[in-house]
Amino acid sequence: MKLDREDLTSGDCDENIEVPALRLKDFLSSKLDLLKLEINGCKTDVLLDCDEALQNVNNVFVLYRSSPREPQAVDLVTRILKDAGFRLHIYGEQKSPRPFLWRRVGSGTDMTLKIFAFRA
Fold it and tell me: CA dihedral in degrees (17, 29, 118, 107; nearest 10)?
């Protein structure tokens, strides 16, 4: 089902909105070459739910963003991928060149990582 923006919001971005969702794990029962995850706010939960089904995936890309308002879970994301048999290659986007002195927060995130997971 395709939803238009008007279906998702009434103009107030802080409003909680329910939208229909499908379970990713249900789509991972057959072999898949690439899984790309760019999910705001719940990618760790999705990966935890899919951990056993990740055996059917050859490559995974995760765009990981952390918010200063929430606990970081990059260790959990990488552990799930490593436990599923992936080798990781991680790129960090430079947010703060001197993080001990000053930390830049842009678009609500304080860290962005591009995680490439592949079968070795």
Answer: 0
User: What stretch of H or E contains 61?
Assistant: strand 57-66
- Residues 4-52: tens digit of each pLDDT: 444 444 444 567 888 888 899 999 999 999 999 988 777 888 999 999 9
Asked if residue 117 lies in contact with residue 47, where contact means CB atoms within 8 angstroms, the answer is no
Taken in order 46, 65, 59, 32, the sign of the CA dihedral is positive
Boundaries of every domain in the chain: 34-119
Pick the CATH number of 34-119 from 3.30.1710, 1.20.120, 3.30.300, 2.60.120: 3.30.1710
Please state, for a pLDDT cut of 70, what percent of the chain lies above it: 88
Give me the amino acid identity at 14: D
| pLDDT surpassing 70 at residue 84 | yes
Phi, psi (deg, nearest 5) at residue 107: 55, 35
